[in-house]
Design goal:
By secondary structure, this protein is mainly α. Helix content is 63%, strand content 0%. The protein has helices at residues 5-23, 34-43, 49-58, 74-79, 88-125. Helix 1 (5-23) packs antiparallel against helix 2 and helix 2 (34-43) runs antiparallel to helix 3 (49-58).
């Protein structure tokens, strides 16, 4: 089993470099066109020259600042996940929805109160038949 480990490590590095190259935007590729890097990775992957060359010289690497992702890069801002209780737009939509629901409930209560007041006035004025 141990004799297969070097082969598996080379294969893993080869696959990682290939997928990383395919997923990298064209503007972040250095030196050569992206297609040429893919060919280099595929042709020289067995001897690790292609994948190592890609990882060292093929891609623009950004040093993380202030955490695991660089919050200043446009790509990080697009994929940055914000919890709902930290998202101001979500909280504003909740407040708007809550305000609408409370306003509707208040109008319903006011209408019910007016109906009951009218009914009480009619009873007091004798419009309804008396019990008897």
């Amino acid at each position: 089993m141990l004799r297969y480990l070097p082969f598996l490590l080379v294969l893993a590095l080869w696959i990682y470099a290939f997928i990383d190259c395919l997923n990298t935007p064209e503007e972040e590729v250095r030196g050569l066109p992206k297609v040429v890097w893919v060919i280099i990775i595929l042709l020289f992957g067995e001897v690790l020259v292609g994948p190592v060359a890609w990882l060292v010289a093929g891609k623009v690497r950004h040093a993380p600042t202030g955490g695991a992702t660089s919050a200043g890069s446009p790509r990080a801002r697009q994929t940055e996940w914000v919890a709902p209780d930290d998202n101001p737009e979500f909280l504003k939509s909740l407040k708007d929805e809550t305000a609408r629901n409370e306003e509707k409930l208040l109008k319903d209560w006011e209408a019910d109160l007016r109906r009951r007041e009218d009914e009480l006035k009619r009873r007091e004025s004798g419009e309804e038949p008396t019990e008897g």
